[in-house]
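Budget justification aside, the reviewers requested a transparent look at the raw inputs and outputs of the sequence design task funded under Objective 1. We therefore reproduce one unedited record. The lines immediately below are the structure tokens for a 283-residue chain.
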């Protein structure tokens, strides 16, 4: 029988709980989430358990990373199911603050980053996004003070941004990326996949296939722009409205002119119906 994780909702209670968890020099890992947990999140928890003796999962739908036109109010919230999943994985603690706890009256501080946060990918279409992400993740890191933090590679630019922030600010957290978990047909697992209609769900894996085809062409020595354009055309032909379909340097996310410029990553964001999907693959 799985044991129920401790659930805390205030900073003083979190501090007391962490003091108990960190007794006997235990190592801790944090898995930040916005809830609506799926098998991709479970894989992050399992990786965290391999890296640390104590695992903390935060569940907080962060309003500052949503623009007014985006889906904050309709973002899926599945608290009971989330707790059950985390109990089954024997997570030690769930940190579940409310908005007032994270952003009390008079809150006036933001963490703004450059580098990978200004690569012209998500930031070009969601200019508010990374300021919200870095501020809330910076708070989570200082609240929980973990040794490790685990993020999925599906949000690859976010992974690069958070890694850079933790390093630049000497936060003492080692950020670990975990491979993207996919459905059997290749669609990256996402909390927003529930918003796809049956027809859209059947079409959605084409986005992954388009990236894989572009990666295949690049590995075969094809021209970078030709491979990129071919992948974008395949996705658009299936009905996706592309925000971007880019080949970038895998470390810095800077634009590159050819495969000789360094390790490559293909990154894309596209809409099908009302749902926006993001994904990436290594080359």
């Amino acid at each position: 029988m799985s044991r129920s994780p401790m659930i805390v909702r205030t900073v003083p209670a979190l501090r007391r709980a962490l003091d108990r968890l960190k007794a006997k020099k235990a190592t801790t890992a944090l898995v930040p989430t916005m809830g609506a947990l799926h098998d991709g999140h479970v894989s992050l928890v399992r990786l965290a358990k391999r890296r640390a003796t104590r695992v903390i999962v935060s569940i907080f739908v962060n309003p500052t990373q949503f623009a007014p036109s985006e889906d904050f109010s309709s973002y899926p919230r599945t608290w009971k199911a989330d707790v059950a999943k985390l109990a089954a994985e024997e997570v030690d603690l769930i940190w579940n603050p409310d908005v007032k706890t994270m952003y009390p009256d008079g809150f006036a501080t933001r963490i703004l980053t450059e580098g990978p946060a200004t690569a012209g990918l998500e930031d070009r279409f969601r200019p508010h996004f990374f300021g919200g992400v870095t501020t809330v993740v910076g708070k989570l890191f200082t609240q929980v003070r973990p040794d490790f933090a685990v993020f999925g590679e599906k949000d690859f630019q976010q992974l690069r941004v958070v890694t850079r922030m933790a390093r630049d600010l000497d936060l003492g957290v080692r950020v670990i990326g975990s491979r993207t978990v996919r459905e059997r047909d290749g669609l990256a697992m996402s909390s927003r996949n529930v918003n796809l209609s049956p027809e859209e769900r059947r079409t959605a894996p084409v986005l992954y296939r388009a990236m894989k085809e572009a990666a295949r062409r690049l590995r075969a020595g094809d021209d970078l722009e030709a491979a990129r354009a071919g992948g974008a055309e395949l996705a658009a032909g299936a009905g996706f409205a592309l925000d971007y379909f880019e080949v970038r340097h895998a470390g810095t996310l800077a634009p590159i002119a050819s495969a000789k410029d360094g390790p490559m990553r293909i990154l894309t964001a596209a809409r099908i119906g009302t749902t926006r999907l993001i994904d990436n693959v290594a080359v």
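The mean pLDDT is 96. The CA atoms of residues 186 and 205 lie 6 Å apart. Computational costs for records of this kind are itemized in the attached budget.
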